[in-house]
Amino acid sequence: MSSEKTLILVKPDGVARGLVGEVISRIEAKGYAIDALRMLQADRAILEKHYAEHIGKPFYEPLVEFMMSGPIVAIVASGNRVIEGFRSLAGVTDPTVAAPGTIRGDLARDQGTKVVQNIVHGSDSIESATREIEIFFPSK
Ligand code: IDP
Ligand code: MG
Fold first, then answer.
1. Alpha helix (H) ranges present in the chain?
2. pTM to 2 decimals?
3. Which of 51, 59, 92 to mutate to test the pocket of ligand 1 (most atoms within 8 A of CB)?
4. Engineering a disulfide at 8: which of 38, 64, 75, 131 sits with its beta carbon 3.0 to 4.6 angstroms away?
């Protein structure tokens, strides 16, 4: 039985603050497997694909600029219900109200920027995960 996969990104704020290990530790401590991992400097083309669903929203351009502002770490993690499970580990989008105990709730806060800086991305569905993994890990 092949287990579910998700795409996780440690965003530029997480890398700059030295939280890559912390994020990986939480994924591993929860019991998910790390299948692939790479550090990269994202360019506009890759981010336009990744964030296609947000094109036209007020935070879209700040989001792309933020995601290009420094290196990111892309991770494929796997395990039963990992998509839902990592979203639960990450906490809700707004770090001010993300529950304590979550990555965003423990490690991020509102910085007053146009785009909310919240340490991690996690795929939100099987379709998104398949699409996003192909963007960051072509034919994996
Ligand atoms: P998610 O990362 O929790 O899935 P999405 O709605 O997919 O949230 O948004 C993608 C990213 O865009 C968020 O993680 C956050 O960095 C940013 N973002 C989303 N909504 C807002 C907003 O209303 N204001 C500012 N930034 C936002
Ligand atoms: Mg999302």
1. 12-16, 20-30, 44-50, 60-67, 82-90, 103-107, 126-136
2. 0.97
3. 59
4. 75
> Tens of pLDDT along the chain (140 residues)?
569 999 999 999 999 999 999 999 999 999 999 999 999 999 999 999 999 999 999 999 999 999 999 999 999 999 999 999 999 999 999 999 999 999 999 999 999 999 999 999 999 999 999 999 999 999 85
Catalytic residue numbers, as ranges: 121
- Ligand nearest the Cα atom of residue 131: 2
Q: How many domains does the chain have?
A: 1
Using the structure block, give the residue that is written with the tokens 């990992």: 82
CATH number, domain of 90, equals: 3.30.70.141
> Is the CB of residue 59 below 6 angstroms from any atom belonging to ligand 1?
yes
DSSP-derived 3-state class of residue 132: helix
